[in-house]
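Renewal narrative, Specific Aim 1. Our central claim is that a sequence can be written position by position from structural information alone. The example that follows is taken directly from our test logs and has not been curated for this report. It begins with the structure tokens describing the chain, in the order in which they were read.
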């Protein structure tokens, strides 16, 4: 009887402890990237991988740099998915023009002559300004040799001082970076697709 009573008290104590834990905070706003305004044609196909990024900027949270240079998470706003996944989807959309080639997600298992490897080195807020910086590398799809590289950066000012306005500004900067990388990829592929194939040696 004493053992049963002790077990019951322990269970009640555990339930009491659980009941006082704070409820997880639900963000007031979830944000995504707006559709890309410019779509690029491709004359050959490219695999578009999800970009690499530090843990701070690769998730759903939004970070802001304060006046001391410290990065802090912005409360009550998040992305609908990880920021890097949103960038990958935006890139796939931006490269889906009317050319013979297509942008392909790696999970399809399809092969392509080119592959885009990219890293997001900055995707944060500074006050009411959204900042994005990306290093992009175009690889040979078969040998994975480096064909060309570029670094792009963009910024966008918020239309107001609210966290929602700031999140939208950061999304704007992210789309601008995606657009610049898409232009780099399409230009390289289309220029080299137009080059005549070397004649076989006699």
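The sequence written for that structure reads:
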């Amino acid at each position: 009887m004493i053992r049963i009573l002790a077990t019951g008290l322990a269970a009640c104590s555990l339930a009491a402890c659980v009941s006082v834990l704070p409820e997880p905070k639900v963000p007031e706003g979830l944000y995504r990237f707006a559709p890309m305004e410019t779509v690029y044609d491709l004359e050959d196909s490219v695999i578009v991988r999800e970009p690499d990024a530090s843990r701070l900027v690769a998730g759903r949270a939004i970070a802001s740099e304060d006046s001391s240079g410290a990065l802090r998470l912005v409360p009550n706003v998040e992305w609908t998915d990880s920021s890097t996944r949103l960038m990958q989807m935006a890139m796939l959309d931006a490269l889906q023009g009317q050319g013979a080639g297509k942008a392909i997600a790696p999970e399809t298992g399809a092969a392509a002559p080119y592959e885009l490897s990219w890293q997001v080195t900055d995707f944060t807020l500074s006050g009411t300004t959204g900042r994005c910086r990306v290093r992009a590398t175009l690889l040979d799809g078969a040998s994975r040799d480096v064909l060309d590289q570029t670094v792009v950066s963009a910024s966008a000012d918020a239309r107001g001082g609210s966290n929602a306005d700031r999140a939208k500004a950061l999304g704007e900067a992210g789309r601008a970076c995606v657009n610049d990388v898409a232009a780099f990829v399409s230009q390289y592929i289309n220029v080299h697709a137009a080059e005549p194939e070397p004649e076989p040696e006699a």
